[in-house]
Every structure is written in C-alpha cells, then in structure tokens.
Amino acid sequence: MEWTYNPDTIKEYYAKWIKLGWNGTGAPYKNFVDPEKLIIETTHVGRYEGRLFKAMLTWVRDYHDLVNIQRLLHFIDQADQPVLGAAFEIVAQNIGTEQRLQTVIKHCKPYQTHQVLFKEGDEFGVYDKNQKEFAKKEYLKWGLYCTMVEFYDDAMFDKKHVLKNNFLLGLRALIGPNIRSEIFFQLESITRIHIKALAEKIGYAYSAVYNEVMSMVENGFLTVEDYGRVKVITMNDSISKYLLKIPII
C-alpha cells in the first residue's frame, strides 16, 4: 500500500487511540473507531510518531483478545507488514505465545534491506546510528532497526472503560471477536441493509456473511426479506433492545 505522511492528520490518530483506551493527552475521537483499520494505519503513521506505535503495541498487548484476527488479515495487504509482524511478535513474547497473534505474524514478510523503524532521525545521523548499533533482535528479523521494546504500562485505561466507550468491543467481549459481532454492530446503527453491502462494510467475503446471516435468521436474531435477487436484512427488535442493555456497554 502506498502511504503518504500527512502531519495534519496526526491529532486524529492520537484521538482514535485515546478512544480505544490509551490514556494519552487530548480528547478521545468522537465517532466510531475501527480497531483493525487503526492498527493497519498505525503501522505506517507510527513510524513517524513513535508514541502512536508504542500506544498500538501496548493496546494489542492488553486487549489482543478483542482483535478480530480474520478481519485484520482481510486488510493485511494495506499494512506495513514488517512493522505489524514485529509489533505482534513482541506482544506474543510478552504475554506468552498467543496462537491468534501467531496467525497474523505468519502472514507478514520482512524487509529484504534493513531500515530504521522510526523516521524521526536527526541532521547528523546520530539517532539512526544508535538505532542500528543497538537494535533489538525482535526487529532485526523483520528487516528493521529499533531499540524500543517498552510498553506504556501506566497509560492504558482498564477494560471496563474500553468496553463502555466502544460498542463494537463490548459486543466482541460478549460474543467473541468474530463475524457475528460485526453483523450485530452494523445492524445496530443501520436499520436495513442488503448482504453484499454488509459484507463490504465488515470486511468479510460475501459467502461467509451470507452463511452467517442465514444462521442468525434461523436462530431468530435477524429477519430477511427478498427484493428480487437482493436479500435485505434487519435485526429483530427484541435482540436490539437486549444488546443495548448489556451492562458493560
């Protein structure tokens, strides 16, 4: 993926990580934050803003059980893959190998030619020289030079705060970080939608969404209406009311 650094958007990235639970300086993002897309984008912008990279590293360590791995893999071609691989491997080592993280790591490829992770440098090259000389092995295997493996241990809100302020993550905590949570989340804010549009919104293949929707219809969670060849779905009112009353949300 081509990525162009835009300093005008940096405040937005800080606000998004604060919304997800980073206790950083500033106000949280007002709208919905897509966790997987934010992780993907931070593999790029975090190279220019080291605090954002560290916030991502810490958030994944603390809330990896809320990451939808299948959805993250759907967007992985848009990531700076060596950065993503290094970050997830550092987290996996810190928490003890977590198989879901390993799935992402296996899909990432290292750089063929090594480069300094953080693009902040300095006029005389002292920073880059230091990074190359003292680079950690966790980065070297990914074709990166970096000395930073620390986390923001005292700068993350607890899970109750995270779930209360992020409806999708609350659903994932209840149901699991899976396709069903994504469908419920979309239908809570969109009254009616056809399956193809739903698949595009949640980042899953049409066939997977179709099969899951039909299963949810059989279980009484959703209603489907046929408009020619288009199937339009809605969430049953009782299910919608139930989800909105979940205590953690």
Walk me through the structure.
- By secondary structure, the protein is mainly α.
- It folds into 2 domains: 7-145, no CATH class; 178-244, Arc Repressor Mutant, subunit A.
- The chain is 53% helix and 7% strand.
- It contains 14 helices and 5 strands.
- The chain has helices spanning 10-20, 35-45, 50-63, 69-74, 81-95, 99-106, 126-133, 137-140, 159-165, 167-175, 179-189, 195-202, 206-218, 237-244, and strands at residues 115-116, 144-145, 193-194, 222-227, 230-235.
- A 3-stranded antiparallel beta sheet has the order 3-5-4. A two-stranded parallel sheet has the order 1-2.
- Helix 3 packs across helix 5 (81-95) and helix 12 crosses helix 13 (206-218).
- The two termini are 35 Å apart.
> Biggest sheet, open or closed, and with what strands and sense?
3 strands, antiparallel
Report the end-to-end length measured between terminal Cα atoms.
35 Å
Oligomeric state as shown: single chain
Query: How much of the polypeptide forms β-strand, as a percent range?
Result: 5-15%
- Anisotropy-based shape: elongated
Count up the helices.
14
Could you state the order of secondary-structure elements as H and E?
Answer: HHHHHHEHHEHHHEHHEEH
Uncertain segments are none
**Helix content bin:** 40-55%
Q: What's the pLDDT, averaged over the residues?
A: 92
**How are the strands of the biggest sheet laid out side by side?**
3-5-4
Key structural traits:
single chain, mainly alpha, 14 helices, elongated, 249 residues, Arc Repressor Mutant, subunit A
How would you briefly describe this protein structure?
The protein has 249 residues and is mostly helical.
